[in-house]
Structure formats: C-alpha cells, structure tokens
C-alpha cells in the first residue's frame, strides 16, 4: 500500500508538471527515479503483445507492460493534471500577465540547462540551433496566439504533446505553447471534465487519439534521434526554447479578439511590446494596461529558482 501511494504521488507530480510549460513531466520522472521503468513500460506496448496474448493471455500482457506500475502512475498523473489544470487555466483568465511572467521565467531558466548538455558545439549544432530558433520565432509572429481548433491541428497537437513526455527537459505543455494550442486544449479539457458530453468532447477525443498515435510512433522517433544524435537534438531543443520566448512574453498588445464557441471574448492576435509601451496603451482587451512590473519580475525569479532547484536535485540523484 505504501509503495502504491508513493507511485501515485510520483505520477501526480508529473501530471501537474505537464500543465506548466517549461516544467517537464519526463524530468520529474527522472528525478523521482521512475523514468527508465516508465520508458520501458511504454515501449513494451507494441505489436509483440499480440503473440504474448496468444501464448499467455491477458495476464501475460499485463506483466509484459508492467501494468500495475503503469496503472498507478497514470492514475496519479490524471489526478495531478486535473488539479493543476483547474488552477492554471483559471489564473490565465484572471491574471494573464502574471502567469505568462511565471512561464517566461520557467523557459528562461530551462535554456542553459538544455544547451549545457550539448557536449560539443560544432558548426552543425550551431546551424541546427539557429534553425530551431528561427522556425519557432517565425511561428510566434505569424500564427494567432490562440492557435486553431481545426481538428487536424488538434490531432497533431496530441501527437507532439505526448511525444514530449519521452524526453526529460521537454514539456508537453511547452510544445502546445509553441503551436499556439495551449489556450485551446487546456480549457477544452477543463470544460470536458466538468461536462463530459459538452461541445468540447470532439476536441478532447481527437486530441486523445493524437496522443495515442504519438505514444506508439513519433515518440519512438524522438527517442531514436535523442539516442543517436543527442548533440543535434539538444541543440534543436535549445533553439526552440529561445525562439519561444516571444510567445510567452507577458506584455502583449492585443490587436484583435474573437468570440469563442462559448460566447467569450478571447485573444486572436497580439504582439510583444515593452512594459513602458504597455502602460501607455489607451485600452488593451483582456490584458489591461497595468504592467505589474514588480510582481511579474518576482514571479520570473521564483520560476527560475524552481527550475534550478529541480536541476540541482536531479544532479544529486
């Protein structure tokens, strides 16, 4: 019972982490000592289970995928995800500048932690880093900040989001943030939890299907590149992080809004501006014009300390 509770709590920490861009569930799995076992259990879910089922039945399949362990971790993740989701989504609606400041600090602190893992910075790694930066920065200035609720985009978000779980240092929520889908997927899941048969059901189902496909396919591709080309992969991730900073910059000038499916006004387009310019705006829907500089800087500092503390604990482990 004690061991089961420990696994559920470890899963819960991963679930909360997956709601917060910049904090990786994979990193927390690594810190708590379950990463290799979790990776092994996930990779055991493949077509070989068909022959295992024929020879040993459901009991053999359950043993092959380390079912008891996986069930406890997933149960804990679900609890942590739901709790974290409600807190973060509500705060994004009521205090967007403060939450984006916290996210900005998380990603700022993550950049050196990723790039320092590149053992050798050659021309290839530098070019890949620049490519990653340029690609993500281009996404942040060309795509609407609220993403798209088109089902193809929701499906792709599920594939990429779950794949991030496989790599310590890369957050699934961070990937959704890069795609502009964080403010689409997270509120949809929150509404689905409250009303399972509501209008968000379609988005959640399609996102879930994407996660399943990503779990069995693209995640293995990421794992392969991380194993065979670690320097290049880490350089690309570092570029992604730097390029994404424009996406999480707290002080946004909202240039256009739209009405979502629930009849609520949400941001359609926005642009990053300096805090001094932010305070000079005559009006700024949803964000307001008070830059809250002191509280935002404090939140950024708290986020940096959080990430550095996690890294230090991970190194000791």
How would you characterize the largest beta sheet? 2 strands, antiparallel
Distance between the termini: 25 Å
The residue fraction in helices comes out at over 70%
Radius of gyration, whole Å: 20 Å
Supply the helix-strand structural class. mainly alpha
Low-confidence stretches: none
How much strand content do the residues show? 5-15%
Mean pLDDT: 83
Strand order of the largest sheet: 1-2
- What's the domain count? 1
Task: Outline the structure in words.
This protein is mainly alpha-helical. The chain has one domain. It is 71% helix and 5% strand. It contains 15 helices and two strands. It has a two-stranded antiparallel ribbon. Strand 1 and strand 2 form a beta hairpin. Helix 2 packs across helix 15, helix 5 packs across helix 6 and helix 7 packs parallel to helix 13. It is globular. The chain starts with a helix and ends with a helix. The model has no long low-confidence stretch (mean pLDDT 83).
